[in-house]
Amino acid sequence: LQPPDHLDERERHIFDKLAAQLEPTRLEVQDVSGGCGSMYAIEIASTKFKGLSMLKQHRLVQEILAEEIKGWHGVQLRTEL
Q1: What is the rounded CA–CA span in Å between residue 43 and residue 65?
Q2: Nearest to 77 by CA among 33, 66, 59
Q3: Were both Cys, which of 6, 52, 76, 79 would link to 41 (CB 3.0–4.6 Å)?
Q4: Tens digit of pLDDT for each residue in 18-51?
């Protein structure tokens, strides 16, 4: 899965980290804070979510991004198989 060209440096970091850990079939990362990097919208589809509840899928993503999330005000997260 290749990152889109429009990602900024922080979005690309998040994209690359999730792509490496979850091998997604679809991944979108967008800074929805107006460009200051304090809130992100993430949509991800991965076969690694198979058998996991939505809550566990979200926890898995949050564990991977734990260090990054510490500096955010919030995250909008959508996961699917």
Answers
A1: 14
A2: 59
A3: 76
A4: 999 999 999 999 999 999 999 999 999 999 999 9
